[in-house]
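Protocol step 4 of 5: obtain the predicted structure for the target chain.
Materials: sequence only (see below). No template structures provided, no constraints applied. The aim of this step is simply to have a reference model before the mutagenesis design in step 5. Sequence pasted as it appears in the construct record:
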Amino acid sequence: MTIERGRPWGERVASPEHLHVVPTDRDARNWVVAQRSTDCVVKPVGLGGGDLARTLGGGHPGRFPGEVTKATVDILRVEADGRTTWAVAHVIARRSWWRGELLFAMNAQFCGAYDVAPRSHPNDGKADFLQVSPAMSSRARYQARARARTGTHVPHPQLAVTQSAGRSLVFERPLVLWVDGVRWGTARALTITVEPDSLLVYA
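Step 4 output (structure tokens):
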């Protein structure tokens, strides 16, 4: 069940025996894709590192075996120019950090060292979309990037932040897609859909 504002989420438990533990978002995504692609129910996974693990307050391989947080999270279905994949933490569409169109679709709060989506919750049935105006200057982007380390880059008149269960976009020109930190190809048309309660994790 997706979380509602003000309700407790997750529980502290002992990590299960024989739990598959992955070190990065990329590896968690590979775990999901391998099973989703064959219409299998995705098995639980331990998050030993990555942005989703950090969002849940984990991210330390040494926690396994031991006391960890058990929680159900959403995943993101990504459809682009006839191809489909899934993301556990985030999707980024860009040609450059410093000019042109730039989009973040966040299931996790963090992207590397940056608190990109301070209000993001990985089990609220929504993704946080942060879209950078193409008119935003390189200097303004540099300043916003510096503030993003503490999540103080928003609100900003050239950063549009929305929350929704899905979104379809068509870019002016093809952008490179990065799915959980891995370059996945280019696309001009992109649809991202939240699949609620799709993955049980330990972090």
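Step 4 remarks: The longest helix spans residues 25-36. The chain has a mean pLDDT of 93.
Proceed to step 5.
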